[in-house]
Each structure stands twice: as structure tokens, then as C-alpha cells.
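Backbone-to-sequence.
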């Protein structure tokens, strides 16, 4: 595809802008091979050094990657808005979209009544000097974290889980530093690591969380930070077990050269016990978002950690966004205090568990081993992602290709179960089996 794209520019800045424009419009697809430095320099009548500077700038921003003799390519997940739509085949009319990774909107708590109550008791406007973490919200947040075994003496708020992780990495690391991340892992986190100019080191994952040997290998390779998903790991549904947490705590105990970040984005929706690593290392943070249980539009996460780490995040927030809106804080606090909301979140968690485990069981009847210990996704290893995604699209189902989430992990597809009904599980499992094994006749039995 890159061979048909018309590169332009006479300076490093204009050449890099031309390449980014091609990615943004879809003319340069993820993994597209770019011309060599000398070839593009000859085409544009500029010096090779000019093209090399353009490529270097884009590599530092996580847009391009260079893989030896494989040349310079567009990253599979470049930090450009078109990245995911370009990787997903366009759904056919009437197709069921199971690729988005979002909660079921029908199971999210209604916020209208709470907004009305806040409007009726708004009080005087909040000024710059009064903004910050509301003491009453901090008190409830600490109680909720401590109930799960997370130390919470020092905490702050961020605009969601990824915002918190970005602030943590930015406060502790510098471009070029290595970060240990789960593989497969959260696509947005992999994008963020690249955009920050950090070097990802993949850590293999099983149903009980990151493999201890993989974490040890990442530490030996120089990782300065480790990001672990506590529960409902995206995309595999892994959850850190008690045994795995014990192993990891023993490995990480007392380390002063490592920032440990735990992401508990699913929180109340996870339906499995939390086994935190918080406090194991000198520098640590535990991030819990409200988006999955209470609504993606509620951009708020609680971040607990050691005193220095929390102070760094708080200080960086003050010179940027300033604070998380106190109106949003009051809304989240009202949701936390409402027993009816607790009941609805509990029923949502039960519903997701029924759909997720039901799909895993239905796939097992076809001889397929899928993963989904917690959360709203099922991870199915496949021989070839492209053929499976395409075959499913033709059958009326849209799933996410595993390439979005992988560094070196084997091919797979991710299926989001949140919008499925129980009666969908059998036909979906059959369609997945046919797509995974196209050589078998329709209606086969295993």
C-alpha cells in the first residue's frame, strides 16, 4: 500500500507530516512498509539525512518502527486516530459487533436522578483555590480500597485509568526506558507506551495473571516499570490468583528500582477476589477506574500509592488539568452511596459472568480452548487472525483481531460478550468453530 502513496516534503517536518497524514487517512495501513531512507530521499530530491530525521521523529513518537532487514514500517498500533478502524474489516449491514470491549449500556446505573439531586443542592461555585480531591470522596474511596486489602493512606484522582497510568509513567520514566507489559495486553496501554517513547517488554499471561518467570525475565532485561491488570485483564480475562500474587510479591519484594502499577479497571464487575501487590515495591500505585461498572463517560479513577508517587502525580496534575471536576466527584460519590446502584452493578457482574462462561463452555463443546476467567471478554487462540475475522464478518459477527493486543503472543481473536444474549452463545460458538476450522464441513461435531 505504501508504494501507491505519494510522499511529499522538502524538510524532515514536512516529510513526517506527509507520512502521518497517510496513516490518518488510511492510505498507509498499519504494518505498511515505507521506502528506504535513500530511496525516499531520491524520490523527494532531499538528502538522506533529512529523511532519516523524519523517520527518527516518527519512531520516537511511536508512529513507525524499524525491524532490521524488514525495513521501516508503520506500527501495528500507531498513535494516530485511524489505527483501530483500519485493522477491523468494515462490518456488513446487520452484523453483530462484538469487537468494542464496552459494557452493556442497559446494565449501567442511570445517572439522571443523581444529577438532578446534585443540581438541587449545587451550592456556591467552586473556585481554583477550593478544587481538589473532595474529603468525603477520599474517605469512601479509602474504605473501598482497604476492604480489598489495598493500602490507601495516600491517594489522588485522575481522569480514568489510562490517564493515571500515563501520569505515573511520565513521572518516573524517560523516553527509552523499558516497561514490562502483559502480552497479550491492553491495546491502549501498548499505544501509550509507544507514544511516550518507552520500550515495551512483553510478559506472557495465563489465566492467573502475568507469568512469574516472564516478569523475572523482564526485570533482567532492564524494565523500570511493571503494569499488571489485577482482574478482568483485557483481552484475556485473566485475574491474578492468590498463588500468583504470592509468587510475584516474593519476586518484587523491596525493589527500589521498579515502579509497580496495578490496574483494577473492572473493580466491582470482576466477580473474583482481588489479590493486590500494592506496597510490595518502594514505588507503587494502584489504579481503580469507575468507567466499567458505572459508565465509560465517568472519567474518574482513584489512584493510591506510596507517598512520593502520589505526590508526583498530584503535582503533575496541578500544572496540567488541575483537578478532576468536583461535580463529577460528587456524582461518583452519590453512585457509591446508593444501595440500588450497588445492586445493579452486582446484577451486571452476574450477567457478564453468565455470558462469558457460557461462551467458553460452548466453544469447548467444539473442541476449542478459550480464555475468560473474569471481565467482559473472551480470548480465543486461532491459527490465522485475518481469515477468522473475515469469515466471521461474512457470517454476521464482528470480533477484534488479536494483533491489536499482541507483542509476541500467538494469534487470537477477542470477543466482547457484554451485548450477547444467552441464546446467542450456541450459534456464535458454531460460527467461531467454522471460522477457526474452515476445512471442516458446516454442522460438524467434535
Amino acid at each position: 500500500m505504501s508504494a501507491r502513496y505519494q510522499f511529499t516534503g522538502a524538510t524532515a517536518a514536512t516529510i513526517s507530516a506527509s507520512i502521518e497524514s497517510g496513516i490518518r487517512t488510511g492510505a498507509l495501513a498499519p504494518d505498511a512498509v515505507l521506502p528506504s531512507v535513500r530511496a525516499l530521499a531520491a524520490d523527494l530530491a532531499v538528502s538522506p539525512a533529512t529523511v532519516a530525521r523524519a523517520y527518527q521523529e516518527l519512531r520516537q513518537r511511536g508512529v513507525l518502527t524499524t525491524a532490521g532487514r524488514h525495513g521501516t514500517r508503520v506500527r501495528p498500533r500507531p498513535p494516530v486516530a485511524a489505527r483501530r478502524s483500519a485493522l477491523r474489516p468494515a462490518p456488513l449491514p446487520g452484523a453483530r459487533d462484538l469487537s468494542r470491549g464496552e459494557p452493556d449500556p442497559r446494565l449501567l446505573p442511570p445517572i439522571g436522578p443523581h444529577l438532578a439531586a446534585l443540581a438541587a443542592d449545587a451550592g456556591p461555585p467552586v473556585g481554583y483555590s477550593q478544587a481538589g480531591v473532595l474529603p468525603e470522596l477520599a474517605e469512601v474511596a479509602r474504605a473501598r480500597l482497604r476492604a480489598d486489602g489495598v493500602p490507601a493512606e495516600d491517594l489522588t484522582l485522575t481522569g480514568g485509568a489510562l490517564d493515571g497510568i500515563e501520569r505515573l509513567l511520565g513521572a518516573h520514566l524517560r523516553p527509552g526506558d523499558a516497561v514490562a507489559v502483559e502480552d497479550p495486553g491492553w491495546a491502549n496501554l501498548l499505544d501509550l507506551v509507544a507514544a511516550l517513547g518507552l520500550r515495551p517488554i512483553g510478559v506472557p499471561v495465563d489465566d492467573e495473571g502475568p507469568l512469574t518467570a516472564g516478569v523475572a525475565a523482564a526485570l533482567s532485561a532492564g524494565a523500570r516499570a511493571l503494569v499488571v491488570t489485577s482482574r478482568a485483564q483485557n483481552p484475556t480475562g485473566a485475574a491474578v490468583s492468590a498463588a500468583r500474587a504470592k509468587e510475584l510479591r516474593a519476586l518484587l519484594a523491596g525493589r527500589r528500582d521498579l515502579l509497580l502499577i496495578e490496574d483494577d479497571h473492572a473493580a466491582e464487575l470482576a466477580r473474583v477476589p482481588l489479590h493486590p501487590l500494592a506496597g510490595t515495591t518502594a514505588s507503587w500505585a494502584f489504579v481503580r477506574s469507575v468507567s466499567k461498572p458505572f459508565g465509560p463517560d465517568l472519567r474518574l479513577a482513584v489512584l493510591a500509592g506510596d507517598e512520593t508517587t502520589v505526590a508526583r502525580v498530584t503535582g503533575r496534575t496541578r500544572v496540567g488539568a488541575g483537578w478532576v471536576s468536583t461535580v463529577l466527584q460528587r456524582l461518583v460519590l452519590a453512585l457509591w452511596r446508593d444501595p440500588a446502584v450497588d445492586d445493579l452493578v452486582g446484577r451486571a457482574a452476574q450477567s457478564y459472568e453468565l455470558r462469558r462462561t457460557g461462551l467458553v463452555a460452548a466453544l469447548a463443546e467444539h473442541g476449542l480452548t478459550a480464555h475468560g476467567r473474569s471481565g467482559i471478554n473472551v480470548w480465543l487462540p486461532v491459527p490465522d487472525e485475518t481469515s477468522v475475522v473475515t469469515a466471521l464478518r461474512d457470517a454476521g459477527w464482528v470480533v477484534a483481531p488479536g494483533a491489536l493486543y499482541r507483542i509476541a503472543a500467538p494469534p487470537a481473536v477477542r470477543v466482547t460478550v457484554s451485548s450477547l444474549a444467552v441464546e446467542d452463545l450456541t450459534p456464535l460458538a458454531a460460527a467461531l468453530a467454522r471460522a477457526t476450522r474452515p476445512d471442516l464441513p458446516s454442522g460438524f461435531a467434535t
